[in-house]
Design a protein that fits this description.
3-stranded antiparallel β-sheet; single chain; 14-stranded antiparallel β-barrel; 58% strand; elongated
Length: 417
Amino acid sequence: MGRAGTGLLSDDLGGAWAHNPAAASRRSSARAAVGITLVDTDLELSAFTEEPSPVMVSRAGVGRAPSAAASVSWGRTTFGVTYFSAQRLARRFEGPPVGLPEEDIQRDFSLRYAGLSGALRRDAVMGGVSRRFTEELALGFSAGAARVSMRESRRIWAGIAPRDVPKDPRRDLDLLASGMDSVVPMASLGVVYVPDEGDLELALAASYTAASALRGAVVGRPADVLSPALMSEPEAALELPAAVVVRAGGRWQGERWSAEGSGQVELWPARARALHWDLPAAFVVDSTGQLERYRTLPSQLSLRSSASLRGAVDVQVVEGLLWLVAGAAWSPIATSTPRLAPGFSDLGGLTTALGAEASAGGVTVSLGVSRLWPTARSVRHSLRRLDGPFPGGDEETGLARYEAATDLVGFSIEVEQ
């Protein structure tokens, strides 16, 4: 807690089995821990329009990410298991209320076609083994599975140009797509090397998450009495490609302090940039009875390879009792600017964190807070479109200034025997 995600070496329990199982061999006692992290993400959108329009603010609320872990050692070998929320992202914006005049919708909700909400969650269970082969070298391996769930809501324009004026709200159609994959394999492999001097520790680790085949449903709701309607079987499917994460870092141990730094590269295939929901049996019918097959719904989620840096310092304030920690991290924007969408925008930026660890009688209590400071991106050219099923009206949408910040509060209790 309080290290801004820095823990390739210092986190030798739950985080070790998830990211670098070799780090679990740093301690040989039996241990167990539980924790929870509260996540509050703010996102504001300011549309680039000719007339001033209200700022749209995400109303997703505070999310909770629980965790638990345990480990036991036998000689030079350590076994462990962990449960954690591997990823949690949520955004929710209000759409136009029913009955709002057309001119007010055009002015106040000009970004409605870019996306209204999005949520992605990965809950994982992993178990593994770590072994110190020598005083200098340790290897570890862990494997498990995650349950991945995703949902998002889109408002598409289902008019027919040139018969209808593009973006006429009377031709709007709301769609909610959701899906889940209950078993997504995951694995991590790590190595820790400690030179003869013993003050410096080095680590290298790699994690793999298999592709997620999300299966679920799509539901349509006309936005107006004259709006088109969705006629379909509810089936919807989306594939999240497999990902690889490579981490490397080092930790220097002083008498009453330690410093750690690490880097991370997250690798996604090119097709992860443009994801879509497959709708095998969806049709849209407008108020005149015209019917059109609707095969795919482009997703707001867009992923690309990226790299990040992290660092933290631990200082012993009261010997055997209290440590204070501080950390910082930097990550680039995880989605290319032209593909930004309200439901899943990750703008990256600078994170700072503070925390404290108190130990007594084999019990360690940790508390930490972190903040991803406000980061802004301006979308002047967008690859997002109205995405309607009928011909015409293929205009870009989502031109706006995005500004996001995230606050985390974490708490954990560890018992050692």
